[in-house]
Amino acid sequence: MMAVRSVNGGLFCSVASPPLLTFSRRFRQFTSLPFRRNSELGLWFPVLCSGNQFLGYGGSLSHSAHSLVDCVMEELTTWRSRRRIRASVKLTSSGELLEDKLVNPELEKGFLLEFKKDADRVLLGVAQRPDGKKNWMVYDQNGVTTSIKPQQITYIVPGVENFDQTEISKFLQKAHENLDPTLLEIAWVELLEKNASVTAEELAEIIFGSSEPLESYCAHLLLSNDEVYFTVLATKGSRSIYGPRATGQVEELLHKKLAKEAAEKELQDFVQLLVSAKAKPARSKPAKSSWMMDEKIRYKIESLEAYAIDACNSDEQRKTAGMILKAMGLTKTSSSAVNVLINIGYFPAHVNLDLLKLNIRTNHSDEVIAAAESILSESPDSDEMNREDLTHLKVYAIDVDEADELDDALSATKLQDGRMKIWIHVADPTRFVEPGSIVDREALRRGTSVFLPTVTFPMFPENLAMEGMSLKQGEFCKAVSVSVVLHFDGSIAEYSVQNSIIKPTYMLTYESATELLHLNLEEEAELKILSEAASLRLKWRRQQGAIDTSTLETRIKVINPEYPNPLINLYVENQADPAMRLVSEMMILCGEVLATFGSCNNIPLPYRGQPQSNIDVSAYSHLPEGPVRSSAVIKIMRAAETDFRKPIRHGVLGLPGYVQFTSPIRRYLDLLAHYQVKAFLRGESPPFSSGQLEGMASMVNMQVRAIRKISASSLRYWIIEYLKRQPKERKYRALILRFIKDRIASLFLIEARIFRSAWVSIGCHVGDEVEVLVESASSREDFVLLEEVIRDESA
């Protein structure tokens, strides 16, 4: 900073400065006063005194001295002001004001400009006319006229007036042909050495030797798309100034760019694999295992799979799947991912997504299978000496025709006093499996066998379940037999629970058992006794308050489900069918006996109950029996409960207590009941306390709920797939269950046992049967559109 002060009537400058040097030269030109040069400061000072006396104290030169001081002070003030201005304005490396380079031309008709159409697209267009005060109508490279705001403009091509809008695409093509990113590196080296900044036009002069419109736009494209060599120093409107990055920063960005380019190439190569696999015929598509061989390919395919089932375990996995779908031109949705995986053969056409989403165990591990094989070959029967020989009884095993695990069978006779004696024989898997063993722990984790229209996943390894545990026709089988003598009113007179050996006589389907009952053959008197016992028991249970919830059930068996168009066999079963009613009543009877047996002997068991004391079934007597009435009653039923210490009333069944016992090969809670009962029969303490049972039941029930969800959704999928393949003109019978709103009713399709809603005509009531057509259906979307067939009353 410069200080000026008067010393003995003269002027003294403490620091030489350009403003003062300029001033001294100027002053010497316009004054006749003599000057004296200060050799140390390099300044000329006017001589304002005569002899030893200074002028200005009454002398004639006093005014000139004062004028000189004023001039000096004015010059100093101006100099300080300029310094403040220069400190507040950015300069280029050459000392030019940035503001001078950021002046935006006023937009006029015919100007060629670049603008942001949206977040992802930048277009080139020609200004047409103003649109309001600030906006402009622009004709873009795609032939679309759009109104844009000033802030959307990213560059105005200099030197262009009245540009022919039909030439936009040609101009753009030439610009892209001239783009050479290596030129940026050359310019970066030169500008870094000079520490200089550039505009697009200046860069065009450096790399093209010209700043004509095409060259300037090419330079703009290079700079605006560059992520390595240059950075934006300042931007105002559509004008920007760029500066070279430091060497270290460029090296780091180059490394990242190369890594990004490698990842993009890797992504494109993977997408090409997907496209190639999709184009191949079904039998030539790559095996699923082939996608697992390369680590990087496996990660990408697993990311897609996780995305398809909404199970991404990281943001990176989700991002990877999203990039793959985007690269294929698809929307980032789970259904897009599913379709890709189906199209390449990784997923079968009718993949069960719920199985994957809920991570249900399907195949058994090698360790479990090996343990099961060892059990089959070495396991002795610890109850052999205590088994009752019941091989003299005629034994009926009745189940669906595709059943693989047969774990219950029936026998019956009439006593001399006319009462009926029933045996319920249950397979004895505990002769093979001990609590806590590797096979038992796996069964606990599974909770239940999984029965789907396409496949069965047994709770136990298949060989052990089918060959060792399951009951077989004509072979000696180890069992736990529950015998019951009924009073004439259907109540239990006496019972026993014992280990046994049986020899099943018949393996019947429900259809064949019903046929035998209708034939009323004399030689099948035992089957008739079982049917009479079932009727007697049903009557007794209803007297105890039981609620009949029998309805129609659908069974579907899919042949070759891995094919795009597999064979679908659909069966509708009536639970009131004589054979189905017979089996159901005997299973309920067994459950009542086991609850009584456990209660009398203080055995902790999973006692099931369902309190229904507040249900007045008579309120629904106006509804037709069957699906309509059952549907109405089920809606108000309370959830089942379980106690592990003592029986609780099962109001729906009309029983004082109930224990599920008849499916130990299929249900783990039944197996737990077997563990407890078998230990008591051997005179041992039960292996599990009530608290332990409760903990295990909690685990099992969680798994069972998931599997029920899968089974229900899989059944719906194949029912809808079946409906979709039927002729469009096929008519279906449907029962009106209830009205949802106005004339929109909840319907039950009798032929398919599926619940859906549709509009029905005026005059229809709950319980009425209507005819409907399937207008459209999508199994993947779980969607069926029904339309009522309006009958022509005049016909």
TrEMBL record:
In this entry, which stretches build a coiled coil? none
At the top level of its lineage, which domain of life is listed?
A: Eukaryota
| Entry's Gene Ontology BP terms | mRNA catabolic process
Under Gene Ontology molecular function, one entry of this record is: 3'-5'-RNA exonuclease activity
Stretches that traverse the bilayer: none
Give start and end of each RNB domain: 387-683
Please name the Pfam families in this protein's record. CSD_RNase_II (PF23163), HTH_RNase_II (PF23161), RNB (PF00773), WHD_RNase_II (PF25255)
A GO cellular component entry from the record? P-body
PANTHER family, A to Z: RIBONUCLEASE (PTHR23355), RIBONUCLEASE II, CHLOROPLASTIC_MITOCHONDRIAL (PTHR23355:SF42)
- Protein name per its UniProtKB record: Ribonuclease II
Species of origin: Hibiscus syriacus
